[in-house]
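Reader question, answered in our methods column.
A reader sent in the components of a multi-part assembly and asked whether the whole thing could be modeled at once rather than chain by chain. We filled in our standard form and ran it. Here is what they sent:
COMPLEX SIZE: two components
ENTRIES:
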Amino acid sequence: MGPENPNRPNYPLRPAATPFASQQSSTPFSSSGPAVGSEAPAFRPGPPAASNFQAPPFAGGPLVGTEVPAFRPPPSIRSGEVVGPPPPPSYGPPTSGFQRFPNPPVSSAGQVPPPHISLTGQPVIAPPTRPPPGHASPFSHPQPPLVSMGSPPQIIKTGQPNPNIPPPADQRFSTPIPRPSSQPSSPPTGTSYPAGRGTYPGYPNMQPNSDSQAPPMLPASFQMQQGGYGPPMQSSFPLQRGYAPQAPPTSLLAQQRGYAPVPPVSTSSGLYSGNQFQQHGIAPAQQSLAEDFSSLSLGSVPGSYDAGLDITALPRPLDGDVEPKSYADMYPMNCDSRFLRLTTSGIPNSQSLASRWHLSIGAVVCPLAETPPGEEVPIVNFATTGIIRCRRCRTYVNPYVAFTDNGRKWRCNICSLLNDVPSDYFAHVDASGRRVDLDQRPELIKGSVEFIAPAEYMVRPPMPPLYFFLIDVSISAVKSGMLEVMSQTIKSCLDSLPGSTRTQIGFITYDSTIHFYNMKSSLAQPQMMVVSDLDDIFVPLPDDLLVNLSESRSVVEAFLDSLPSMFQENMNVESAFGPALKAAFLVMSQLGGKLLIFQNSLPSLGAGLLKLRGDDIRVYGTDKEHTLRLPEDPFYKQMAADFTKYQIAVNVYAFSDKYTDIATLGTLAKYTGGQVYYYPNFQASIHKEKLKHELTRDLTRETAWEAVMRIRCGKGVRFTSYHGNFMLRSTDLLALPAVDCDKAYAAQLSLEETLLTTQTVYFQVALLVHTAAAPVVADLGEMYRLADTGAIISLFSRLAIEKTLSSKLEEARNGVQHRIVKALREYRNLYAVQHRLSGRMIYPESLKFLPLYGLALCKSLPLRGGYSDVQLDERSAAAYTMMALPVKSLLKLLYPNLVRVDECLVKTEEFDTRKRLPLTVESLDTRGLYIFDDGFQFVVWFGKALSPDITKNLVGEDFATDFSKVSLSQRDNPMSRKIMEILNQSRKSDPSYFQLCHLVRQGDQPREGFFLLTSLVEDQIGGANGYADWMVLLFRQVQQNA
Amino acid sequence: MDWLPFIWLIFSCMNLTLLGLNFYEFLGFSDLEADFLNPYELSSRINYVIVPEYLLHGALCILFLMTGHWIMFLLSLPTAYYNLKQYLSNKHLVDVTEVFKVVSTEKKARLIKLGFYVIFFGLVITRLALSVVSTVFADDEDIVAWSTIY
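And here is the structure of the entire assembly that came back:
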């Protein structure tokens, strides 16, 4: 797509959008004082800070989706209750074509079939989904995976027993078969899917209770379950959409009929809705059977209607990120998954097992993740005793340490060393080994705590928070309006900067010369000093360039007020960025702090000048291509290293419409724990709110200063590599001059010993102290079962982005693909022997979204296409951003939310964010209005046939005009209010970035293509595979050498 | 023939220095891994000696060539080539920001070079000894003949 950003035209400002900013600024984030850790991970320093901690105003990561209920039901056997708790919805096992069946039939061959399965009926249950009326998209339900096989609405059948049901071989029904309670749990043999399995010895009594439970009417969409018995065997039916009962092989029919005599119409639209069934009554054993794997049938199979795969049946994360719950249930004292996620919570017990796991063993850590109100991390002050840590490995006391010797000693859970309990910390231990004072010791109950660090943990006393601004004032900065927006924003944030009266602030501006500002409190106006000797930078008046904000408040405000006008006439196009950077370094090196750089053009003078290398088309596509993504001049790396050494964090704001070499400038942020904000072609009229929100958040969010972070783990495993924005100070110590809630770090670990002897591996992240335990497993299947797609994708994206720095984009994409293929192949090999798998692709329930996210990753900005698909700067900026994104934001970026809003605008119903649609053009109905939200921007898509009324209400009279010039603002009508409310709601739930709203009309190229069509990851875009093709491709590759 | 022992003496000194430099670098990387050294110190120390090391090795090569010791020259070529390649691709200096990613490969490279210099040193010392012997016993024809074979 063309280089130009379509939105160039200006949008009028949108007034409505502002709420964010203001809100934010008022919150007091407490940044805390600087803590430092020397070796100790830094804590936030106590005093000043701690007191103000409040819950951040923003709610934590918004998950939009609902969460899936427990992932897998607890193993315990539930006695016959079928209906039980809603077990996991979709996790069922899989099998037949596409669908996963929740509960495989019990009787597998080897087992003794329970004599009768009583189906207690549970006929269906899924809450009725509403069939999407008229809507084009077939998927109405959020939960993707399952295909509903349609058995007709059950309702009917409920009361009737069907004595004879033929043993159906067909799978398509997913039935929950309740097991009688009496039945001991039959071992879930994995086998449940053997093809033959079908015979159920009849379900003689099925229904006795069904009535009671069955809701009287089931909406059509639910069909599935009831029929349920079907063993899922054969995979082959691709799901057809609404499958009418009669279609299938006769045996099926019979069965079905049995149950449901009258098949109501299953509508085609309902297909999806079926998915949920599983929830109901799954007996435990079955459940476990069911969990073996999920599958998708790809080959054409006799009996199926269409060969190949049914697109609608592919798994889609329409519920957003779903974290594995079973793991959290297993170790309730672990820290929350928002802080630490493992790619698999089953740590392999041997190197040979680890080598069969191709998805990297690792963790994604977001040490300061925002917590929702009510779940704040407890703060512990060990002022009297000193922080209790293991003598040898320096682990902090945590819920997993064991107190022995009547409470006089404690055993470190990481290195097993027996430590003395200091007398002040002593408490008796009761008979069960618990300390009697447990309830007053949050550090012994909670996985996450914050210790107040005493002075010995700091290399130097806490420095005042320091904010330093390095501002480009060349012509483009002035013209674009950046200068004005920035000055206003900074001014509005002065009250909410962390640090209260200690905060220091300073400014340098530059074009072809460097301008320093003396802002001593005794002056009425700031005094500007110009240094034009770029070769030998010196700092005039070193003492007055950094001033205490509260003392010099009026001077600072005067400066910010006059800044835009001061340079209004500036025609200078040069940028002495390198020398200015050095000057900033000289000023800041005493105190450390945060440096914000506002850069509008390519650095052109003095040290660190950069060339217009991005224009050199000849390099693209060659072996040298990757060098364009690497920093060009070692000056920047060296500066970044020096900044980190002196505890300076750098955030880069880049605004140019031309090539600015973000790849090089970004290194400053990368190695100092900072962030890159990129506003291509900045226009104050369009991007004002975005810059304002993001700058405000940057300045006011809770920040830990001068931190170091280390992840400790038990014997036998070791973290070998780290990925993200930071600099390593030693092999396992991350130096983070400033760290906040929007930064996450990934790490890979490896086994040091060939065999692990322990049962559990513990991890402890020391910044805030987060502790987690993970079981050691001996079985590959168990590792797959405990896998976490979100963490895996997060790690993969970082590895892939790092790979783009040393090889071509295509190789990076292939790397992702190969890993997925290898993992699926290995998984297939686990089951290929016991099950007939031909024509089916199988994957663990936990990884059902992995292929889709992998595809989305390959289509994400840093990896997409070739050189012409994305501008180099955008690619680099996106890469730097993705290297720091927490898991949830990353997943949302990869698979954005697409929701239809016209219906809810017209009616008065509540907007339901959960009705997300698959990201394909087919989801878009020309009569609809859709919102696309990837966490960084909104795209509002207007269908061609959308009622003019809606358009008129939303964008005013001029609805026929060019949408690039129109913005969505609040108008005086309910529809407009409602949509603004929806947008603001989403913004509030995801405050890390500001989602600028772009309006797009169907068919309005290239705007539509640029904003929306290229982001529909399931479609074929410019040579990249669509979802279905991708699955087929993966399937073929998995088959090879399988 | 009188100058020959001196030349070999110079060679052996140079070789010894190279050996020392490499060992120093190797030690630096080991210390970094063991956390006895931080990356900043490591990079400033190593980057300080790396160019001199390359120059010294280059000088050694050229000296071998100029004094007509073909075999020794050829033996020293691979290392010289490696050095040159590193230098030309700008990878010779330690990058302080990414040093932990390369520490194991750098260590391995240093170890191989160390081995190379040790062997080389053995050869040089032998030649030194032979040249001394041949000079001292210049009149002993057998020895002279034997030593010039090399």
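What stands out: The interface with chain B takes residues 634, 637-638, 640-641, 645, 667, 671, 721, 727-731 of chain A (CB under 8 Å). Residues 895-1028 of chain A form a domain with the Severin fold (CATH 3.40.20.10).
Send us your own complexes using the same form.
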